[in-house]
């Protein structure tokens, strides 16, 4: 995969925009694990990946919406950019592929809000996929709060590279304790309850409320 090449070329740019990185002591000693973060800017994924790659020398395999990975095609998206393509016609496939990555000792990343959120005060309703992956695999799930002023879209994000007052803060939290959900049927009530616990943890790390 060309991920290492991309890291060497672009990671200095993203690290330059990192103002604060807190809570790395909560990261596991080694993979596999999941990372779940709020999503506020175009550079969220690359900035988070640069911190993780520097520590583990592994990429984050991000669950990626169809509108994004289709730009590159599945082959390039999966093998070059480290994406886990979410196919709108076969959504169950993304769970299996994510579980395979975790079984292989990789790091899987997901933005439970599913898209970038412009609301500065509140998180959007979290999707349940991250929790399903964590409970099914038994891998720890690390919540991350992101504050990002570099821009919601690509143009603004690129323009921010020359602005000193544009920055990204990353705050890692302790693994979300899912022990209360073990040995219970993985049904909608369980997924909703556990997802709320995850989103509240993310909200505390990025100073946002969660109302669902």
| Total helical segments | 8
Uncertain runs are none
End-to-end CA span = 38 Å
The percentage helix is 40-55%
**Gross morphology:** globular
Radius of gyration: 16 Å
Structural class: alpha/beta
What is the H level of CATH, i.e. the homologous superfamily?
Answer: Glycerol-3-phosphate (1)-acyltransferase
CATH level-3 fold name: Glycerol-3-phosphate (1)-acyltransferase
Q: Class in CATH?
A: Alpha Beta
How would a textbook summarize the main sheet? 7 strands, mixed
- Overall number of strands: 7
CATH-level-2 architecture? 3-Layer(aba) Sandwich
What this model shows, in words?
With 212 residues, this protein is an alpha/beta fold. The chain has one domain: Glycerol-3-phosphate (1)-acyltransferase, CATH 3.40.1130.10. 40% of the residues lie in helices and 17% in strands. A 7-stranded mixed β-sheet has the order 1-7-6-2-5-3-4, with helices on both faces. α1 (3-17) packs across α2 and α5 (92-103) packs across α6 (129-137). The longest helix is centred in the C-terminal third of the chain and has 19 residues, at 188-206. The chain is globular and about 50 Å long. The model has no long low-confidence stretch (mean pLDDT 90).
């Amino acid at each position: 995969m060309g991920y290492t090449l991309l890291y060497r070329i672009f990671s200095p740019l993203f690290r330059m925009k990192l103002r604060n990185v807190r809570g790395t002591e909560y990261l596991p000693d080694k993979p596999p694990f999941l990372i779940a973060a709020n999503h506020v800017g175009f550079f969220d994924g690359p900035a988070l990946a640069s911190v993780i790659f520097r520590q583990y020398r592994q990429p984050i395999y991000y669950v990626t919406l169809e509108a994004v990975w289709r730009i590159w095609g599945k082959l390039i998206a999966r093998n070059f950019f480290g994406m886990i393509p979410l196919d709108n016609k076969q959504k169950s496939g993304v769970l299996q592929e994510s579980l395979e990555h975790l079984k292989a000792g990789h790091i899987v990343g997901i933005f439970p809000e599913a898209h970038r959120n412009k609301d500065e005060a509140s998180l959007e309703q979290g999707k349940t996929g991250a929790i399903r992956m964590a409970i099914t695999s038994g891998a720890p799930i690390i919540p991350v709060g992101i504050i990002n002023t570099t821009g919601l879209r690509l143009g603004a994000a690129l323009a921010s590279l020359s602005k000193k007052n544009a920055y990204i803060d990353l705050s890692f939290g302790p693994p979300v304790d899912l022990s209360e959900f073990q040995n219970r049927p993985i049904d909608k009530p369980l997924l909703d309850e556990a997802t709320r616990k995850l989103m509240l943890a993310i909200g505390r790390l990025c100073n946002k409320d969660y109302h669902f």
